[in-house]
Amino acid sequence: MMSSFADTTPFKSNPLETRDDLAKFLTGILDPLASHTSPGGARIHLGHTATHYDEAAAQLEGFSRPIWGLAALLGGGGEYEGTKRWVDGFKNGTDPNSPEFWGPMRDKDQRMVECSAIGFSIAVAKEKLWDPLSEEAKKNFEDWLGGMNDKEMPNTNWLWFRVFANLGLSRAGSHRFDAKRMKADLDHLDTFYIGGGWSRDGPEGVIQLDYYSSSFAIQFAQLAYSKLAQAEDPERCEEYRSRARQFALDFVHYFDEEGRAIPFGRSMTYRFAMSSFWGALAFADVELPAPLSWGVIKGLQLRNIRYWTKQPGAYYPDGTFTIGYCYPNHNMTENYNSPGSPYWCCKSFVTLALPETHPFWAAKEEPYPAALKETTKALSYPLHIITNVGGHAYLLSSGQQCSYPVKQSAAKYGKLAYSSAFGYSVPVGNGMLEELGGDNTLALSDDDGETWKCRRATKEARIEDGKWLRSMWYPWKDVEVETWLVPPQKESPLWHLRVHRIKTGRYLSSAEGGFAIYGQRKDGRHLDPSTGEDFGTLENGVEGRATSKAGVSGIVDLTDGGSRQGKALRTDANSNLIVARAVLPTLLAKHQASDGNVWLITGVFALPSVGKNEGAAAGWSKEWKKRPSVLAEIAALIKA
């Protein structure tokens, strides 16, 4: 096809099997930044989109985030020809008399975020990044970096950024190192810990347990600290390694056999930062719990990075990152995503700090552990039931929500399911159903579909008997929705079940979506109603279903006497994170105001294509006929 000329990346040919391969990939990411770097090296300008913070901080972000990878490479004995750009940047960015000065710290300043990578870089690559500076430059540098020690910070994972700033100052022998401040921050961060290896992203009452609780921030930071501060703080460091061992046995379920992680929550534009936890385990020399081994950890990390080297939409033609997930998409971003934000993914290069003799690099890469395939696990801390039955990893979710305003937070935390193969979708407008991106949600409207509400604040969520999730949602004062989410059953492994009890004091329209799926035919044109092709069809009627090169997605009303209409809805472009053109199997209905309960029972079917084998797998139609059953305990509640 003519469009195939654009279906490539600058990195697709890299096999990413060895330490040298990973270093080559990092070099390929760092090199294109040269033409976007200011004359003094302190700022990297990658685009003109705005953030809630100032432009100088955005350009500092572009400068600092690649340092996660550069520092690891240099700290591990490697070399990079462009290192001088960052050394010059440290000099000019911290000099108040330089036109490239980053500006002084203020309370809750975005500059604080970037101090994490900068402090880490001094701690692991002092000889290459700190020692070449003049005494005057060192003084300016330490004064700027230490300037955050008396400033107010958000009560979140941000406190780790000051810890790493102080860790860097300590390694540099700076008088601006504040040991008392660092210990107070660490002691407070430890109050976020809730058990089982998990920490929430804030104090009690915050119920976000997303990638910030793991690879993006807290777990990664704990592990890096445990390596760098072992001599000074051995008891805390061992506690962090213990937490990581526990956490790893849950976190492994968020990845599938192809290396993809389940998109969930905010900051998805950080991409393969999602797998940096596995590299941090190696960096910290953590003793691994079975069934994990160094070969397994190596596979989890490298397969995820390989996946991202092959996503054309993740890169501009010059090799710099786009803002988005699998393609440029500002609908799913947050107001803190600058053009430099995606380079947070450079945390995943942390294993370059390790020698080739380290067990991570010496081990033979192993596939996803056989003992964890075709399994379902209830994770009580994040309130997820997570499964890889059926060819992809996906989670059922209730109980998480963002504790502060974040764009599209209902889509990022409130959906019923999230998939490594099908991702999730976000609204692209505030009106009709096609704009909603309503995959894996029960959307309600009280104005005949002019506007829709989706679950955001989930209440009274719990996992019952390890079997299902149960929760409440109150979209209006006179409407309550209780939902049960049931993972795949042995008799119907490609389905999961949803049961909703709606009590409403007003007339409502409902739209319940399954998994959004790639919406084009073999010939590249959009899907049409059934034409008898091998794949590339829509089925509408009493159920909604779509097949395409991405596999099969469907939804069925299983309510006794149910009258919901099934439709494969063509969603507006750029709503799904993984595919820009998607269709969404959906069930539609109307509900009159009633003092009684309205019950909706829904079966959701999904079978993604695997590897290079496009389309629905053989035998899928047989599995489609194996409808899930309502478990006896829930059936009794319906009859009561």
Automatic annotation (TrEMBL):
InterPro entries for the chain: DUF2264_C, DUF2264_N, UCP014753
Domain of life: Eukaryota
Pfam families according to UniProt: DUF2264 (PF10022), DUF2264_C (PF20938)
Signal peptide coordinates: none
Domain DUF2264 intervals: 18-368, 375-633
PANTHER family assigned to the protein according to its UniProt record, in alphabetical order: LINALOOL DEHYDRATASE_ISOMERASE DOMAIN-CONTAINING PROTEIN
Name of protein: DUF2264 domain-containing protein
Organism: Crucibulum laeve
